[in-house]
């Protein structure tokens, strides 16, 4: 089992869009995939139109029910989702029970190895105890970066934090997201990649109204867009690049 996190300290950069589309593409590629929505904003949960049952999550926290029961099916083969309701309200309590505290999420994920080849973590934009757990659990952390100075600065802060805390720098890989070549600054930053983007993936996810329309369809892009759609092509390339970086 491999664990992929979509993370950046900055919000609104395309983490959830990438998590949802990559999880769908991985599942369609034959990898049994579980997307875990760790952000209380619950964007990924919303895109998959997942309903939650409150009683069940309480039982998991109390230790009476295995965590695997929280995974909900999606309309798509090979793809399950743990909705944000559980993650945001109860995960903190569970994380605090484990020693060493940064390994709690990794341990929670372990039993999923029997059923899933890939776990995709859609993260909240914060550096928190949960983020430390994500960095410990993830084999690969993909950070979407909009080609702007503020977005690059957020990436640099995360890179600095990785260094400071001793996380594997090679596990953190940025990629450009919401790139709009009509804008001069975007073009400049795409063509002359700053040092912080030295390890970036080659795929650039373009600014695209198709991504915005995921909210209208409540579905990943490949489920509704034509095969020549630019965003669909970009996410497909992103999945191929990501797959090579994971150890299947
Ligand atoms: N490539 C893109 N092109 C256009 N809009 C995008 C793109 N990626 C994301 N968006 C839009 O930007 C907003 C934030 O995206 P989201 O994936 O939720 O970011 P994050 O999870 O980093 O907060 C959403 O409204 C989404 O539809
Ligand atoms: Mg999000």
UniProtKB/TrEMBL annotation:
TM ranges: none
For this UniProt entry, which residues form the secretion signal? none
Q: Which residues form the AAA domain?
A: 1-164
PANTHER family reported for this sequence: P-LOOP CONTAINING NUCLEOSIDE TRIPHOSPHATE HYDROLASE, PARA FAMILY PROTEIN CT_582
The protein, known as? Chromosome partitioning protein ParA
Name the source organism: Stenotrophobium rhamnosiphilum
């Amino acid at each position: 089992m491999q664990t992929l996190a979509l993370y950046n300290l900055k919000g609104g950069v395309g983490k959830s869009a990438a998590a949802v589309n990559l999880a769908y593409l991985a599942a369609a590629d034959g990898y049994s995939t579980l997307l875990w929505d760790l952000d209380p904003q619950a964007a990924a949960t919303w895109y998959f139109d997942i309903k939650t049952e409150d009683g069940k999550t309480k039982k998991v926290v109390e230790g009476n029910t295995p965590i695997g029961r929280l995974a909900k099916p999606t309309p798509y083969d090979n793809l399950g989702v743990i909705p944000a309701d559980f993650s945001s309200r109860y995960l903190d309590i569970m994380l605090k029970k484990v020693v060493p505290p940064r390994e709690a999420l990794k341990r929670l994920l372990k039993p999923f190895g029997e059923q899933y080849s890939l776990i995709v973590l859609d993260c909240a934009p914060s550096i928190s105890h949960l983020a430390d757990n994500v960095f410990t659990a993830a084999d690969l952390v993909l950070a979407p970066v909009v080609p702007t100075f503020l977005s690059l600065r957020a990436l640099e802060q995360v890179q600095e934090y990785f260094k400071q805390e001793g996380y594997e720098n090679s596990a953190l890989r940025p990629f450009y997201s919401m790139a709009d070549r009509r804008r001069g600054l975007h073009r400049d930053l795409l063509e002359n990649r700053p040092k912080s983007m030295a390890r970036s993936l080659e795929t650039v996810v373009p600014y695209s109204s198709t991504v915005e329309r995921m909210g209208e369809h409540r579905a990943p892009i490949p489920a509704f867009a034509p095969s020549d759609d630019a965003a669909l092509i970009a996410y497909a390339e992103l999945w191929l690049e990501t797959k090579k970086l994971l150890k299947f």
